[in-house]
Design a protein that fits this description.
By secondary structure, this protein is of the alpha+beta class. It has one domain: Jelly Rolls, CATH 2.60.120. The chain is 18% helix and 44% strand. The protein has helices at 2-19, 116-121, and strands spanning 24-30, 36-41, 51-58, 61-70, 75-84, 93-94, 103-112, 128-134. The strands form two sheets. Strands 1-8-3-6 form a four-stranded antiparallel β-sheet, with no helix packed on it. It has a four-stranded antiparallel β-sheet with strand order 2-7-4-5, with no helix packed on it. β4 (61-70) and β5 form a beta hairpin. It is globular, with a radius of gyration of 19 Å. Residues 1-20 form the signal peptide. Keywords: Signal. This is DUF2541 domain-containing protein.
Length: 135
Amino acid sequence: MRSLLLLFTLILTFSQPAFAKDWEHLTERRVTYKEDTDRVNINRHNRDIRQVRLKSKQGIINMESISLHFRDGSQIVTDDLGILLKGKTSRAISVPRHQARNLRQITFRYKSVGNTKTDLAGITKRGIVEIQTKR
């Protein structure tokens, strides 16, 4: 019984890195104070993406929607992702397993909360959004 418990503990200890894959930085964009749309083209080296999420690196960002575009013309649209504060992330958007290699482009709509006057006063900063992926 003791050897079985030891074997089970060793298996879990050495297989842990396989379970703990982290989010990878894909790109980041500077957000304007008006509603804006950005597109990120996915090159062939980054195509095996399973999940996508957005992270606010600076400022307060109101996320309108995110669209995942595939090579066959289909797309997945997720609306109303909410407001992201500095350091917070949106919920993860899963890419269907059969479409993971076909992701062509990510389009997202957002706007930064505040305006240029509040930025100059130091109250709110212009937002920076980071796109993170998981393979």
